[in-house]
Amino acid sequence: MSKKIVFLNMFANFLSFGIQMLISFFLTPYIIRNVSSEAYGFISLANSFPAYASLVTAALNAMASRFVSIEVHKKNIKKANEYFSSVILANLILAAIILGFGSVFIANIEHFINIPAELLKDVKYLFVIIFLNFTLSLCTNLFGIALFTENKLYLGSLRALEALILKSVLIVVLFACFQPKIYFVALAATIELVYNASWNFHYTKKFLPNMSVERRYFSWQAIQELLASGIWNVISRLGGILNEGLDLLICNLFVGAKEMGTLAIAKTIPAMILTLINIIANAFSPDILKEYAVGTPKDVEKVVKQSMKMLGVLVSIPLGGLIGFGDVFFKLWVPSESTLKLHVLSILSILLLAFTAASATVYNIYTVTNNVKKNSLIVVGGGVVNTIIVFCALKFTQFGIFAIAGVSSLVGILRDYSFSLPYAAKCLGIKWYTFYGPALKTFLSVSAVAFICMIYRKIYFVDTWIGLIIGAIICGGSGLLLNVMIVLDKVERKILFKRIKRNH
Fold first, then answer.
1. How confident is the model at residue 7 (pLDDT cuts 50, 70, 90)?
2. In angstroms, what CA-CA distances link 450 with 174, 317, 365, 460?
């Protein structure tokens, strides 16, 4: 693989993420000002429903790209077309079924979730468009296989960035020209989806001209292979939904629509940080796979521990910064909302990341050693426990929205420290406590940055964007330098600087 291609893929990915954060930074408060935080909560809630629907489709689609790509690389175009056509034709059937059930749900949506009367019509329109978008995405996503197969992912990232900018501009135009409605956001997302799909069709025709969707290529055997390979992905997704994907729905049903909007705002920044963690963790995945393929368990252990510490150091900046400056940020970002409540909710949401962010690289071990089954079952089990505890907390305590935000973090910490870390070590045949040290160092790194932020605020009063930016730069830079020198050893510092230099 060319270093140039690797660089282009990573650069495009980070560029897309950075601009996405920037757009969200400006667009979120703009939408809230125009439609209210209560209405904004329904946008986040509606966007979570495709995740529920994906449980029906994940088994078929999870491994589709892998199967098609392998056959393309083998020059077995007929077999590749079998997988390609079978998945897309099957997805058309699934899309019709989902739309049928979705139509019944939307027609009676007021009986399932709490919706203020004045928002009922807008929420129904919102859900209609969201479901249509999901089915359209289901039928077109596989066409992105061309860029994956040709290792030109940077093209997809750049097209996605263009689509994101188009969507954002369209939202502003619609809000400016018409009375603002929450379904305008979903309508703009439709244009984004169509834009991406059009480019994927183009790239498929350009890079995979022999690939086509034809009835004669449909194969039940291909469908069965894909379902058998993707079933554990469904289990993992179910666990993810039970752990974090039901929070807004539960909040709506048991606390109220207004509180749901507050929770949706509070989780915006934590969600961005989680995306950043996954991007960084994925960057270490090839190294772990390589060491497992050609090295020894000790070699894998070394790479994983190094990546855990480096990941912990890097993500300690946004995590510690949110803890230390979160109240100022929310006061400036969404001044109409309760600053204290948003800050507490955001801290509860990132508590899991502060303890377990470094574990994101550990999860690669399950994949490379082909031991995903037990982890999937544990994730589901943790999700069930999380849901039960949340229901009990809502019924028997006064914690309300804080229980919804905090319980999943506590359950996630217990899951990672009681199972994920020791099981990863077991998969490699090394001592069970091997990965505890690097994982705990993440928490110490986050605590160090948060402490520096608090000391800074004792000295300097921060209440403006300029003051916040200056404080974040000083505290973030100081925290990063401190953690690099203390947490990382000499070899790890060299590796980190080399990787940063290479990626820039």
1. low
2. 40, 9, 30, 15
